[in-house]
Amino acid sequence: MFSYSMNFNSNLPSFNSKEPQRAPIGIFDSGIGGLTVLRQLYQQLPQESIIYFGDTARLPYGIRSQSEILQFVREILDWMQLQGVKMVLMACNTSSALALEAVRAEFDFPILGLILPGAKAAVQVGKKIGVIATPATAKSNAYKRLILEITEDLEVWQVSCPEFVPLIEQNRIYDPYTTEVASSYLKPLIEKEIDTLIYGCTHYPHLSPVLRALLPENVQLIDPAVHLVATCSQKLDISNLKNNNYSALPTRFAVSGCSQAFARSALRWLGYTPMVETVSLQHYAVIQTIKD
């Protein structure tokens, strides 16, 4: 593990502008939740090189204001641009709900979010749809608004789940308290007899065994990560950016907080302990200001 420093450019692979297909895809989240998106990329687009960023120094995002989220996302995207990414996936529903539209026009690479792919998938299978999400995502009404824009004759209920992300980041998934909390969050949705449940946060698929045990068998679970990566694949094809001719480079992991803590948490979900860099986004912002 090492710390990211002033000479970070020397650590980066060079990508030939004549071969943009070889450039990496960037993914970011507040923590380990985005690993659910990373796993989908491994399955659906195994030939693509990936840079993963976890803003662990500032998690959870779900309790932040929109102005804070916008600031964080812009800092991350500035850093991603420096890494030469060809596309960025917001592996964070809160960022997708509060910042995606604002930042898309500010960068010259495609930026994809989770909300629309998740909403489209849900309306294809359900009539009574529940959404579990962070407080910020639930408050934004992003899923409900998009679902009803696609199909008006559906019922949608959203539940704010502020305790889920901290419990997952602390690896307390099988803690009895986590089951107790999950039961309280799901109760109003079960009472509404939902037939579909959207994971409105990329952390939540980590809770699948707990949630599945509490939900009626007929409830279908929608993981927007699956559909985000399918959309990513389509966009790469349309833009002629898909890497079909070269092997993927090892995934590069970076965080804003403790690299060792992230590596320990990631082991459970990746099956290996990744090498993780520590990046100071504020330090990079200072360098950009000086250059500008």
UniProtKB/TrEMBL annotation:
Active site: 92 (proton donor/acceptor), 201 (proton donor/acceptor)
GO molecular function, one term: glutamate racemase activity
Catalytic activity: L-glutamate = D-glutamate
Keyword Cell wall biogenesis/degradation: yes
Domain of life: Bacteria
Enzyme class at the top of the EC tree: isomerase
Entry keywords, A to Z: Cell shape, Cell wall biogenesis/degradation, Isomerase, Peptidoglycan synthesis
Family per similarity comment: Belongs to the aspartate/glutamate racemases family.
HAMAP family given in the database record: Glu_racemase
NCBIfam families registered for this protein in UniProt: glut_race
Name the UniProt record assigns to this protein: Glutamate racemase
Organism: Richelia intracellularis HH01
